[in-house]
Amino acid sequence: MEQLLHYCWKHRLLPLGELHTTDGRVVEVIDPGLYNRRHAGPDFFNAKVKLDGTLWVGNVEIHDRASDWYAHGHDHDAAYDNVVLHVCRQANKPVVTNNGLTLPQLEIEVPERVRQNYEQLLSEDQYPPCYRIIPSMPALTIHAWMSALQTERLEQKTVAIEERAQRCNGSWEAAYFITLARNYGFGVNGDAFETWAQSVPLNSVAHHRDDLFQVEAMFMGQAGLLNLDFVPERYHNDALSEGYFTRLRNEYLYLQHKFSLQPMDANLWRFLRLRPQNFPHIRIAQLARLYYERKAGLSQLLEYEKLDDLRKLMQTQVTPYWETHYLFGATSAQSEKHLAAGSIDLIIINTVVPMLFAYGRTHSKDLLCDRSFDLLEQLRAENNHITRMWQQCGLEVRSAGDSQALIQLKRMYCDRRDCLRCRIGYEYLKRDK
């Protein structure tokens, strides 16, 4: 119920007519304030309310019952000393701040239609629960919400990239390589690829980047894939007789000693229900080729402005051995095993775009931020179960910007049943039928 009270206060869904505090003062809400959802402290910052004609500027705290003020310990918390109005459904006792001030209280009720609509959202079996209202929503409202979600998703990814840069002693080159590697996991092995990339000492690899074999040896070795115990037993003899596995392993042992390397736990890699072209061996071989060809660096990325040029930059294939293998010792039909066009676009969406946005935001380079949004509008929308779900509800998904917005909507709002923060949810709650 308290969340609904927050919603009603934020959107001014208040009783018609004159409002009064519990001690009889006339209340006029000039500005409900800025909703504080994520941080400690009062629920709404910098609200403006008039009490008997006198303007008060400060914070507003909201509870279901006034006694919750004490249950939450606000009476001993100086952060609540600047509250100017306490809003609640039931003012069952006076509330006093840490500095001894008795606060004015306003009782409000959640409108019945809002309560019923909210309960309907929570109990709806069909997904998403707001599907009924989507076809009738104004296009402008949908567009504005999608734009906000798109930015929100990029900002969320920016935080992750900045954290990677911090872990790498401020190196944005390393943060880009880790981000790129993570997205080579294409979801299933994303965490494992990030762990792997963090274990790869790029400064050490750089000493041998002119030798593709040594690059691959270090990449495969750090992934734990040059341990014979991790080669399926039925392929042991073939892997050893072919010689390539042994040569890579011996080269890695030399480099491991030279640079004091510690490989990751190979058990982190997942193979179940993976198509062979998505096996870690293939993706790592592709990354080795990309790195060797000097196409895996942030400096190169920042030079490219056109989508077609970025697609060419991201094009890669496996090293020669892997043209006829998916695992050590397991032969396959010969293929260069290029990244598919759709996979390249996914890499651009999930790596290039957020990296440009994050780097631009952090280094005050607005052109890079603008470029990231332009790329999302140029790229085709992703085709996955999330985008198809929204299309079935009546939403148009025309570009990667739209698909990224809808992924954000599902994961950060729908999956959490956080309808009260969603603009579609807002339209649903205020409807009359």
Description:
With 433 residues, the protein is an alpha+beta fold. Helix content is 48%, strand content 11%. Strands 1, 2, 3, 4, 5, 6 and 7 form a 7-stranded mixed beta sheet that branches. Strands 8-9 form a two-stranded antiparallel ribbon. Helix 4 (139-167) packs across helix 17. The longest helix has 29 residues, at 139-167. It is elongated, with a radius of gyration of 28 Å.
Features:
elongated; alpha+beta; 18 helices; two-stranded antiparallel sheet; 433 residues; seven-stranded mixed β-sheet
Topology of helices and strands:
Layout: H1 2-10, E1 19-20, E2 26-31, E3 34-35, E4 44-51, E5 54-65, H2 68-71, E6 83-90, E7 105-107, H3 112-123, H4 139-167, H5 172-184, H6 190-199, H7 202-205, H8 212-222, H9 236-242, H10 244-259, H11 280-292, H12 298-303, H13 307-314, E8 325-327, E9 330-331, H14 341-362, H15 366-378, H16 385-393, H17 400-414, H18 423-430
Parallel strand pairs: 5-6, 6-7
Antiparallel strand pairs: 1-2, 2-4, 3-4, 4-5, 8-9
Helix pairs in contact: 3-18, 4-5, 4-14, 4-17, 5-6, 5-14, 8-10, 8-11, 14-15
Provide a concise account of the structure shown.
This protein is α+β, with helices and mostly antiparallel strands and 433 residues long. It is built from 18 helices and nine strands.
